[in-house]
Design goal:
seven-stranded parallel beta sheet; single chain; Rossmann fold; alpha/beta; 9 strands; 251 residues; globular
């Protein structure tokens, strides 16, 4: 998105999950576009020394709201990118009540509380919310509690778009499928053929990269998307367009 003019010069951009694979790319891309980045992640995460850093657990409601207040005290965010997310329980059978609560809190409730804490200041000058959801929010690919949380995030995004549009606030979501990050390394070491089998499910014959997802985030956060709110942008190498294995099976 780089051009003669930086898209986000002087903009205050809050990014959660800033120390992860996609998070690090988002931080670098927004910094390159002139933004003032506020990076958020768990205590112990490694964050860039060039950003304003806040460490807290989104599963801790009190800590999340305190962090939101601390961030807002230094200035109204212009953009909030809700990127943090994780999952452990891959099937309904493996879920426990505690796991359901933690995955809902970490993937939805914390993001909702943090975004809500920014609204009073953002209503003054407008701004943009970009939530990272998942194709799991649309169809079942395992990880049921994570999927439910990501679906809730889409509903929350639409609520902000509809209720806060009169204040010049936009809200949208990016819906990625599997993203090639270092999170895959452990599984690939145990099963080197995993990525090849996974890629065969996608019409483009591969999974998407962190840069491709970041491109969508920066677009929705930018003035180029000034008339877009309450919608989603799927970055999934064609996964949600149809069932490629079914098509190949019958032809």
């Amino acid at each position: 998105m780089r051009g003669d003019v930086m898209q986000f010069a002087g903009k205050r951009v809050v990014i959660t999950g800033a120390g992860g694979g996609l998070g690090r790319v988002l931080v670098a891309r927004f910094l390159a576009e002139g933004a003032q980045v506020v990076a958020c992640d768990l205590p112990g995460a490694v964050l860039s020394e060039t950003v304003e850093a806040h460490y807290f657990d989104l599963c801790d409601g009190a800590a999340t709201q305190a962090a939101g207040a601390a961030i807002a005290a230094k200035g109204a965010p212009d953009i909030f990118v809700s990127n943090a997310g994780w999952t452990l329980a891959e099937t309904v059978e493996r879920l426990t009540p505690a796991a359901i609560s933690r995955e809902m809190d970490g993937n939805f409730t914390g993001a909702a509380l943090l975004s809500r804490s920014f609204l009073p200041l953002m209503r003054i000058g407008g701004g943009a919310f970009v939530f990272i959801s998942s194709v799991n929010a649309l169809t079942h690919h395992g990880n049921p509690a994570y999927s439910a949380a990501k679906a809730a995030t889409l509903a929350w995004m639409r609520a902000i778009a509809v209720e806060e549009g009169k204040h010049g606030i936009r809200a949208n979501a990016v819906i990625p499928a599997s993203i090639r990050t270092h999170a895959w390394d452990v599984r690939l070491q145990a099963d080197p053929g995993l990525l090849d089998r996974l890629s065969a499910l996608y019409p483009l014959g591969r999974i998407v990269t962190t840069d491709e997802v970041a491109n969508a985030v920066l677009f929705l956060a930018s003035p180029l998307a000034s008339g877009i709110t309450g919608t989603t942008l799927t970055v999934d190498a064609g996964l949600m367009a149809g069932n490629l294995p079914f098509l190949e099976a019958i032809t």
